[in-house]
Amino acid sequence: MVFLKKKILSLILASFMTMTVTSYAAPSVDLEFNKDDFSLSVDAKSLSGINAVTTVSIMENENEISNTNLPSYAYVYKTDSQGNLSQNILLPYAIGSGRIYVYLDSHAFSEVKSIVILNENDTETLSLIGEIDSFTEKEDLCDVIMNTEKSETLGLDLSDVSDEVIEDAAYVCFGEIQDLEEITPEVFMNTFQKCMVYAEIKNGGDVDDAMKLYATSFGTTWEEYSAYSQDIRETFGEIFKSAEAGEKKITEIYTDSILLARVKCADSWGDTRDILTENSDYLEIDMADDSDFSDIKNNKRYKVFLEVFSSRDTLDTVDDITECFETAVETTLKSQKESTSGGGGGGGGGSSSGVGLPTGPSVSVSKDYEENIPVSDVKPYVPKEKFLDIKDHYSKEYVENMIQKGIINGYEDGTFRPDSLITRAEISKILSVALKLDTKDITFDFSDVKDGDWFGAYVAAMAKNGYINGYNGQFMPSENLKRQDIAVIMANILKNDEEVEVPEYKDLGDISEYAKESVAKMNALGIMTGSDGIFRPQDGITRAEVAIVVTRLLEILESK
Question: Are 113 and 29 in contact, with CB atoms under 8 Å apart?
Fold first, then answer.
């Protein structure tokens, strides 16, 4: 019996010990050096329990701590309630540049990490910088950088970098520093790190990985850089890699490459307008009040940005962007003068795209009815946090813009459902709100729209303005809206009489005859361009796509 009790107790203890061991995550230690205030950030997770006394020791050599090899500096802290330790240690200026070793010790944990730091006042570093300043051959700089001890004295950690990349970076860096009036340790380190990004990418390295390490050398941060879309970052990498170092400084190559990538990856002429306006000084494009651009009428200026947007695939340099802008200004001004002097070419009525307004029983929408129209079938709900299902969606920026303007809503469960299809009734409501249409006291002629339908006033307003049509006396409010039909609606709203060629879409034959002209106009305006040479005219249009096309529509209307 005693034996049995002991055995049970042993099993319980073993089980408890197993649970205790597995309940803690593996310890991790991250170090970060901040050269601005000469400090060391220590971020350690899951060390050795709650409020455990932990010693952080700093060594300037790799030998283990002993009675004969005492640490240069030691600090004592306690872990927090999660067993973590986060401290920012101001380092003594007596510590020289190079690799330092950081030991963390407690009753149940021991770890050593190393990091390279830069002390701008370190005598060895200053002496080495003076030596570099006198070099006349790039091979001399390469020899210094390839020496691990000397490169670490310069604040560079190249332990995981291939010799090929180091050599290429050294050669580029030699050319970069020739024109510098004064070389300081920080200037040299930043210059070399920029060259490291160039050399890494040139040798097939990952663009994002290189920028994670050295983004600050370009005066930016990884967070700011990573905010660009993946398409922009990939395009930037291709442009940056193809540039020839020496023709321009690395910083200028970086700035050119980012700017060119943003223009080439613009989603609309509105994006192009914003990029060009933000960077007009750098691009040397004149948008001042006394410029040629200012002579263009407000409702025609979008054509300039649309031309640059439409030409984005042919732009290979920032000079191409500037030239394209100036040519577009010249062309738009010429067209404006010709239309003014020519006296205009009258509209002649014309026919709207699509089937004409049908006849049928009239339904009157009263003021009282309009005030009681619900927003949608499901009560909209805007959560405190943004809709989680658009967090990484390509339409996020456009959806948030529409929500902020009160044009489109989400659902009470906190979702937006960006990939759900839009019905003809829903698009009537969205566009009526976006265009601020009068929805009171309107008569409409659709047999399947009844007094009391939540969408009735919106359908009536759209039909009255000639923006949307029905078929054989019906509106078909519950049917999903086709992509070709939203193109027709947009064309009806814009009333653009300019003739444009129908794009050679691979599925051109699927576009109904009544919609071809509208599809062509939407493509020319950059509102709906399709993708990979396909328009998908018979497909339904999603809530995300509607947010995008309505945003672009409003941009054009606001520019008039």
Answer: yes
Helix (H) or strand (E) holding 251: helix 250-264
Amino acid at 320: D
Cα 304 from Cα 70, distance rounded (Å):
70
Give the torsion through C-alpha atoms of 204, 206, 209, 210, to 10 deg.
40
3-state secondary structure 39-63: EEEEEEECCCCCCCEEEEEEECCCC
DSSP letter string, 319-379: HHHHHHHHHHHHHHHHHHHHHHHTT---------SSSPPP----EEE-HHHHHT--S-SS-
Q: Per-residue DSSP letters for 446-512?
A: -TT--TT-TTHHHHHHHHHTTS---BTTB--TTSBPBHHHHHHHHHHHHT-----PPP--TTGGGS-
How many Å apart are CA 6 and CA 310, to the nearest integer? 82
Token readout for 40 is 């060391």
Q: What is the mean pLDDT of residues 278-304?
A: 88
- pLDDT tens digits for range 447-496: 888 877 888 889 989 998 999 988 888 899 889 999 999 999 999 999 87
C-alpha Rg value of the chain to the nearest Å: 33
Q: Are 87 and 114 in contact (CB under 8 A)?
A: no
What is the Cα–Cα distance from 449 to 446, expressed in whole angstroms? 6
- Reduced to 3 states (helix: H, G, I; strand: E, B; else coil), residue 100 is strand
Which tens digits make up the pLDDT trace of 95-152?
999 999 999 888 777 889 999 999 999 999 999 999 999 999 999 999 999 999 999 9
Burial of residue 477, with CB atoms counted within 10 A of its CB: 0-12 exposed, 13-18 middle, 19 or more buried: buried
